[in-house]
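Action item from last week, closing it out:
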Amino acid sequence: TNGAFHELDADRLAGEIELNVGALTRLSHAALAVMIPRGRGWLLNVSSVASFQPAPRLAVYAATKAYVTSLTESLHEEAKVSGVHVTALCPGLTKTEFQRVSNTQQYADQYPALAWTSPELVAATGLRDVVANKALSIPGPQYKAMSFAVNSLPRGLRRWASARVQRS
């Protein structure tokens, strides 16, 4: 859901939270309940690079993805000794139906072509990284660099920079 938080439909926000947090939590639990006793398996949860910083106008989306990344990193550590691989896939801008559903079509014109990754790259990177048992999978060199830089900044500077990007 995209827009000023106070102007957005509360029911739509609740649905977004239920999908990104509630459903993912239940599915992860169900999968690991089978995989861990079996001693093998792969769980790839789809998060976002938005999980690494606040995102004005995408506040609930970024917050739910922060939950997904944190939960998945925790599960990665819990499952590590069992032989189960757990990875958070954190793509950046990827041209899919997401822009239409989230009402962010303007991003297609707002960001240059080099900012976009393909669905094929995202899927291939995520699958490769879950097999390699990486806790985080970040497709595209631009997003690997961005996530490193963002995570090196003080939180106040992250908020300031994120707000500037959303206003451009």
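Closing note: The two ends are 18 Å apart (CA to CA).
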